[in-house]
Write a structure and sequence with these properties.
By secondary structure, the protein is mainly alpha-helical. It contains four helices and no strands.
């Protein structure tokens, strides 16, 4: 129970950050869209779509409506892609960016372990 509370607390904080970034970016896009090149606007729109997807996923996770198999698959995929990215660009990244990526990887690993543990616990209850 306490783990769920802590997990939801982290989810709410993450949701808050994503919403703030989404809102800020949307405001900047509305104000400065005439000044930005078309390619940059397209990049921003793609980033906003990813944020919308993240917002929906977090909401579902908080409400326990999330498909666990898809969540695990996406978590593993993101973890592996980020590991590959780090292998190629680790030396070129700024220290604070590298630290943020490593922190995200750490939380992904914890989240994955928790999901696997929950799945194992649920299987044991079924038997």
């Amino acid at each position: 129970m306490k783990e769920d509370l802590q997990l939801n607390k982290r989810r709410f904080l993450h949701l808050k950050n994503i919403l703030e970034n989404y809102t800020r970016t949307q405001r900047h896009l509305e104000e400065y869209s005439e000044l930005l090149p078309y390619e940059k606007i397209q990049q921003i729109i793609q980033k906003q779509r990813r944020r919308e997807e993240q917002i929906n996923n977090i909401q579902k996770a908080i409400l326990k409506e999330h498909d666990k198999e898809t969540e695990v698959r996406n978590l593993v995929k993101n973890y592996l892609y980020t590991e590959g990215y780090l292998q190629h660009y680790k030396e070129k990244l700024q220290k604070n960016v590298l630290n943020n990526i490593l922190k995200c990887q750490y939380y992904r690993k914890i989240q994955l372990e928790n999901l696997i543990k929950k799945a194992d616990d649920e299987e044991e209850k079924d038997f």
